[in-house]
Write a structure and sequence with these properties.
The chain is an alpha+beta fold. It has helices at residues 11-15, 58-69, and strands spanning 19-21, 32-37, 40-45, 54-57. Strands 1-2-3-4 form a four-stranded antiparallel sheet. Strand 2 and strand 3 (40-45) form a beta hairpin.
């Protein structure tokens, strides 16, 4: 695990980001969206786009998604 702090993202990077929804989301706009930011990924609530997105390293996002694709659940 790296101890190097990530660089701070600039607002224009988030404004220009290409957000995508899961193909599993319904028409009710009740899911999260993800944007690829290179070494990072941004995750936001599709119901409230004014909220700040959560920024994760790609490895942290992979770990998080791996828990769900492997059938595990996160509690706690």
């Amino acid at each position: 695990m790296s101890t190097t702090l990530p660089r701070r993202l600039h607002a224009e990077e988030l404004q220009k980001a290409r957000w995508r929804k899961s193909s599993y989301s319904g028409g009710a706009n009740d899911c999260v969206e993800i944007a690829d930011l290179g070494a990072y990924a941004a995750v936001r609530d599709s119901k409230d786009l004014e909220l700040s997105p959560v920024i994760l390293s790609r490895s942290a996002l992979d770990d998080l998604l791996g828990h769900y694709t492997d059938g595990e659940t996160c509690v706690g």
